[in-house]
Amino acid sequence: DIVMTQSPDSLAVSLGERATINCKSSQSVLYSSNYKNYLAWYQQKPGQPPKLLIYWASTRESGVPDRFSGSGSGTDFTLTISSLQVEDVAVYYCQQYYSTPLTFGGGTKVEIK
Amino acid sequence: EVQLLESGGGLVQPGGSLRLSCAASGFTFTSYAMSWVRQAPRKGLEWVSSITITGTYYADSVKGRFTISRDSSKNTLFLQMNSLRAEDTAVYYCAKGGSSDWDNHFDYWGQGTLVTVSS
Fold first, then answer.
1. A5, A42, A97: best to mutate for the B interface, most B CBs within 10 A
2. At residue B102, does pLDDT exceed 90?
3. Interior CA angle at B3 toward B1 and B6, to 5°?
4. Rounded Cα–Cα distance for residues B3 and B22 (Å)
5. What is the pLDDT of residues A1-11, one digit of tens each?
6. Which one of B96, B105, B111, B113 makes the best mutation probe of the A interface by having the most chain A beta carbons within 10 Å?
7. What CA–CA distance (Å, rounded) separates B78 from B68?
8. Other CB atoms closer than 10 Å to residue B19's CB: what's the count?
9. Residues 29 through 88 of chain B touching chain A, CB cutoff 8 Å
10. Is the pLDDT of residue B36 over 90?
11. Fewer CB within 10 A of the end CB, N or C, for chain B?
12. Which residues in chain B have Cβ-Cβ distances shorter than 8 Å to A52?
């Protein structure tokens, strides 16, 4: 099984400042035949289902604000919120879909400082 | 507009059974993989099972106890859960895959249905 490890577990960022969340996979999720990283990021607000933000490690889902960006390749990935807004308070999860079982990171809680 | 509406959750005793349903609309149901993902109280997300055109896939924790299926005539996804355990207590989400196969992200999620396994 591919283990997804997120860091930090939580972070508090001032409004308008940058938030950076890391995700590390226990083995590469880069598929050599198509050069795609099988990695997605989700946002979950309290009482709501997860919402897709980023897929293929760096492709922003339609309608997602451009302050959200994903980067990385192989085993190390980052979700960046360039200018934190009040509505970004949530838990963020990374997920690999390179192999079954599909696995998620433990989540990172983002709060306002 | 894609909509996924789960139902069938509730309180069940250990060892009991429950069948979850997910009514899908707004897309061609047969063209996409569908999955169940659960979230135990105050915990993270755990993939449970996926169904594609070519097959079904399960987490080890539910293999042999849970069965995923779909009724294309009714655009409905199911999860038959047998031999339920306390550790199966969670909100169960229905999720649509981004393609016809399992190796894709989940682009739409339902609101979830709560399953509580307790005596």
1. A97
2. no
3. 175
4. 10
5. 999 999 999 99
6. B105
7. 6
8. 13
9. 35, 37, 44-47, 50, 57, 59-60
10. yes
11. N
12. 105-108
**Cα–Cα distances in angstroms (integers) from residue A35 to residues A27, A71, A99, in the given order:** 15, 14, 15
Q: How far is B96 from chain A (nearest CA, A)?
A: 11
Q: Tell which residue, B56, B105, B101, B45, has the closest CA to residue B78.
A: B56
Q: Is B18 helix (H, G, I), strand (E, B) or coil?
A: strand
Compute the distance between CA of residue A90 and CA of residue A98 in angstroms, rounded to an integer.
25
- What is the C-alpha to C-alpha distance for residues A111 and A15, in angstroms, rounded to an integer? 10
Percent of residues, chain B, with pLDDT higher than 90? 92
pLDDT in tens, A32-50: 999 999 999 999 999 999 9
